[in-house]
């Protein structure tokens, strides 16, 4: 009975509860609708969520919540609720058009199109609304035919309906019919000023037609109406940026980044705004974030590259600018940036391609080309500098400043046609003093005193109150060694412009030239007081004193300007001159991370290593020098010589080839390449290179000599002789004497070979190499002459093993045992592991009567030669016989295979002894 009562009670409770819930759901729905009418969106959402919590399958609540989310622009939330409303069988006429728009907001174009079958059952107005979204989805998914059918169908259903016009506007936008699109949008917004899709379309069209303020207004209205559609804030920020409202654009970007700090488009906006504000660090930072998210906008790459350029982040600048440069106009600033970046990175060969289409008649371009030419010239990239200079020649000749720049650059390249440019500049602008000054000093440098004087006299009359007029007069007088005149001119200069450094330095130079030490010191002291940090002054000051006091002045000046690489070099040079090699090395090494170190830096550093006998550091330093500046010809030549001296000809040739890549057609490098090819006996490439060199403007004797050496390698001695003779007669060097003597020897004319070598010793009596070669030739026919020459060699070269060894043999042949022992012992001490040297020592010891010692060294010589040298084996047999070791002697003699008449003769003599 109790069980029944309990069940009945539970049933009543459940029933009451169910009724309460039903009332609650309806109440929530009514409240929600009321709030929606009052535009209290948040309150309505709360009520609708409460209704759904009470009844998860309430289709109307789902629909209303989805509709509310859609009205806020929250596409994802709208899709979720509207899909559930559809599943719960809420009427398609209401759900489908809204669901289609929700899919549009979430870029779910395929889902929009998938609704097309169900949409056929919709009423005209609702179907027209759906078709507008289907048109947009079809266009976005690249289905133009479907889009066209959708538009036609919408038009047939209700041509003047708002959504039919929207569908047509979407389609006409795809065909770039902007005026027609604007007309349709205007009609739609007249009907409904708050039609959000039309507002969005109006903003997008305005961006395309560059009506940025209209775009701003459209996106702002859309944002008010649909605040949860995040994309509109990005579109608004971009429109604001385009409209020039940077500060407002940045505020929107900041708002987005506060929520999503790596949002690409917001970072793009920030990068663009920060770049305009010249905040390159922030611009670069935001640009890199956007690019890392594959937001590869052209403008963004440009900003990233330009920002990196201003920050001197050359690698990053190159990475971005090189990727877009082909799309840039010929005279765009980015091309200049990339060219400078390539210069900084040492990518010299790419510069011409970057600015190859620059308009040389443009003054801005012309100035840039001149500046870049100068920088290339500083690096040693003369060929590339000349290319740019030629490009700059396009500038109209009526530009005086440009002519002056061109002229000075040409003179720096030893191109005397620069004088013509300077003269043209002066003709166009007589007041262009710099140009005329350059002409005068160029004339002075070339020794054309009358030309320089003519300009100086003109200036004296034209500019009697200018110090530069008298400075020029002084320079001419110094060139003519008329020091009194120079002094008078400099005094006048100083009276017109007190303490002008040119005049003061020239005064000091005159005193030093005249070796007037007291005056030099007085003038040096005054100069250093006037300009204690000027590099020219410091150099002159140290030149006068050359002591620790002067070094201290240089050190203090360097301490004040440690970034001045020229001061550091000047200080290191001074240290070297005082023998402070270690200190100079330390200073230079501390600067090794400095960019673009000048060639003087490397030259002084190498000198410190050489002076300290740190030979092991020289080659690595040369390699680093060449790596950091491949355009310094000195580095190419010195490194090549280093490899060649070690007979590493392949490495030396590789360095030369790299040098020729940067200095195409450089004669010095080509001649070095030819020497290397000849020294390494590479006949075929040497002949190919000779075909190039024979067309060059070089001395005929040198050309004949090169061909003679090729013929010598080919063992064509008859044709080589006359050419090598011309080479030797014109350039009587020891090496050329050896080449000529070698050709005579190859032609079996020993007498003429001896004659050549003897002649050279009249030119350079102390050349040990020639003496040694000559003594070797004397060995066959005149032992006394050979002894005389070898004796002279060992006096000059006490460690010449060959000379000592050969003297030992020669004295042995003359039975001068004491002398033979002296030289044989010395040779053995110098080279105890060379078989022939040990063999000679053993032979001389046998001649001296020391049979046991002779056998010891003869055995050792045989062991070093591994029994393969017949002459050494025969001498070993002779020592064995002398020590009565007959059986061993017979065994060795039987194995000795004579290959020359002399060896056969000696073998018979030894057999006879046995």
TrEMBL record:
InterPro entries: PEP-CTERM_TPR_PrsT (IPR014266), TPR-like_helical_dom_sf (IPR011990), TPR_rpt (IPR019734)
Pfam families (alphabetical): TPR_16 (PF13432), TPR_17 (PF13431), TPR_8 (PF13181)
Presence of the UniProt keyword Acetylation in the record: no
TPR repeat residue intervals: 196-229, 467-500, 801-834
SMART domains (UniProt xref): TPR
Keywords tagged on the record: Lipoprotein, TPR repeat
PROSITE patterns: PROKAR_LIPOPROTEIN (PS51257), TPR (PS50005)
Parts forming coiled coils: none
Tagged with keyword Zinc: no
Record's protein name: PEP-CTERM system TPR-repeat lipoprotein
UniProt source species: Colwellia psychrerythraea
């Amino acid at each position: 009975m109790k069980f029944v009562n309990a069940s009945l009670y539970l049933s009543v409770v459940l029933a009451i509860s169910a009724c309460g819930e039903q009332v609650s759901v309806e109440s929530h729905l009514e409240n929600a609708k009321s709030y929606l009418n009052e535009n209290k969106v948040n309150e309505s959402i709360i009520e609708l969520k409460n209704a759904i919590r009470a009844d998860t399958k309430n289709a109307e609540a789902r629909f209303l919540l989805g509709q509310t989310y859609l009205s806020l622009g929250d596409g994802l939330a709208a899709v979720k609720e509207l899909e559930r409303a559809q599943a719960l069988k809420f009427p398609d006429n209401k759900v489908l058009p809204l669901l289609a728009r929700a899919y549009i907001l979430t870029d779910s174009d395929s889902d929009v199109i998938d609704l097309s079958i169900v949409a056929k059952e919709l009423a005209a107005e609702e179907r027209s609304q759906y078709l507008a979204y289907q048109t947009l989805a079809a266009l976005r998914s690249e289905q133009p035919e479907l889009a066209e059918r959708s538009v036609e169908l919408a038009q047939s259903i209700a041509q003047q309906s708002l959504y039919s016009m929207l569908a047509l506007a979407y389609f006409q936008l795809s065909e770039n019919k902007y005026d027609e699109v604007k007309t349709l949008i205007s009609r739609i917004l007249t009907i409904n000023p708050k039609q959000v899709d039309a507002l969005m379309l109006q903003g997008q069209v305005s961006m395309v037609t560059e009506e940025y303020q209209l775009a701003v207004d459209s996106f702002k209205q859309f944002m008010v109406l649909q605040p949860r559609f995040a994309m509109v804030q990005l579109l608004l920020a971009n429109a604001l940026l385009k409209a020039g409202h940077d500060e407002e654009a940045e505020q929107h970007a900041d708002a987005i980044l506060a929520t999503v700090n790596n949002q690409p488009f917001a970072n793009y906006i920030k990068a663009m705004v920060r770049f305009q504000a010249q905040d390159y660090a922030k611009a670069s930072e935001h640009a890199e974030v956007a690019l890392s998210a594959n937001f590869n906008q052209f403008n963004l790459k440009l900003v990233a590259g330009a920002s990196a350029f201003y920050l001197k982040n050359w690698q990053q600048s190159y990475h971005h600018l090189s990727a877009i440069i082909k799309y840039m106009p010929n005279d765009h600033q980015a091309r200049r940036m990339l060219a400078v970046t390539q210069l900084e990175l040492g990518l010299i060969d790419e510069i011409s391609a970057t600015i190859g289409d620059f308009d040389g008649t443009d003054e801005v371009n012309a100035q840039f080309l001149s500046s870049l030419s100068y920088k290339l010239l500083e690096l040693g990239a003369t060929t590339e500098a000349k290319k740019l200079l030629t490009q700059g020649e396009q500038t109209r000749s009526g530009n005086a400043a440009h002519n002056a720049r061109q002229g000075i650059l040409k003179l720096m390249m030893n191109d005397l046609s620069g004088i013509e440019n300077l003269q043209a500049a002066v003709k166009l602008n007589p007041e262009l003093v710099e140009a005329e000054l350059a002409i005068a000093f160029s004339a002075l440098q070339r020794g054309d005193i009358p030309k320089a004087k003519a300009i100086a006299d003109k200036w004296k009359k034209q500019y009697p109150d200018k110090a530069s007029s008298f400075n020029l007069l002084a320079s001419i007088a110094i060139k003519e060694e008329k020091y009194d005149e120079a002094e008078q001119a400099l005094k006048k200069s100083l009276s017109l412009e007190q303490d002008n450094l040119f005049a003061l330095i020239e005064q000091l130079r005159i005193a030093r030239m005249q070796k007037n030490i007291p005056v030099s010191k007085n003038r040096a002291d005054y100069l250093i007081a006037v300009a204690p940090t000027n590099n020219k002054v410091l150099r002159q000051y140290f030149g006068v004193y050359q002591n620790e006091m002067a070094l201290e002045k240089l050190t203090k000046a360097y301490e004040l300007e440690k970034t001045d690489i020229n001061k550091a070099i000047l200080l290191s040079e001074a240290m070297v001159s005082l023998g402070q090699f270690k200190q100079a090395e330390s200073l230079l090494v501390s600067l090794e991370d400095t960019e673009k170190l000048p060639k003087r830096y490397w030259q002084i550093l190498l000198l410190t290593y050489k002076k300290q006998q740190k030979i092991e550091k020289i080659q690595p330093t040369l390699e680093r020098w060449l790596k950091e500046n491949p355009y310094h010809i000195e580095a190419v030549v010195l490194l090549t010589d280093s490899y060649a001296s070690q007979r590493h000809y392949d490495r030396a040739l590789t360095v030369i080839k790299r040098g020729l890549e940067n200095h195409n057609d450089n004669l010095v490098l080509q001649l070095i390449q030819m020497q290397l090819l000849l020294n390494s006996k590479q006949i075929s490439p040497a002949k190919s290179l000779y075909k190039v060199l024979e067309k060059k403007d070089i001395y005929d004797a040198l050309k004949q000599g090169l061909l003679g050496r090729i013929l010598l390698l080919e063992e064509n001695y008859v044709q080589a002789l006359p050419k090598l003779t011309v080479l030797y007669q014109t350039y009587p060097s020891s090496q050329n004497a050896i080449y000529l003597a070698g050709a005579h020897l190859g032609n079996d004319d020993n007498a003429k070979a001896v004659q050549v070598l003897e002649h050279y010793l009249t030119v350079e009596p102390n050349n040990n190499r020639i003496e040694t070669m000559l003594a070797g030739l004397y060995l066959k026919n005149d032992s006394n002459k050979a002894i005389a020459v070898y004796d002279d060699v060992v006096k000059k070269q006490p460690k010449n093993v060959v000379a000592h060894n050969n003297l030992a043999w020669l004295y042995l042949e003359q039975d001068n045992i004491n002398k033979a022992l002296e030289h044989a012992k010395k040779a053995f001490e110098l080279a105890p592991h060379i078989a022939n040297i040990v063999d000679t020592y053993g032979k001389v010891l046998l001649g001296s009567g020391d049979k046991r010692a002779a056998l010891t060294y003869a055995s050792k010589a045989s062991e070093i030669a591994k029994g393969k040298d017949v002459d050494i084996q025969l001498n070993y047999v002779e020592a064995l016989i002398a020590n009565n070791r007959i059986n061993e002697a017979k065994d060795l003699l039987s194995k000795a295979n004579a290959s020359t008449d002399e060896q056969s003769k000696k073998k018979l003599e030894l057999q006879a002894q046995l």
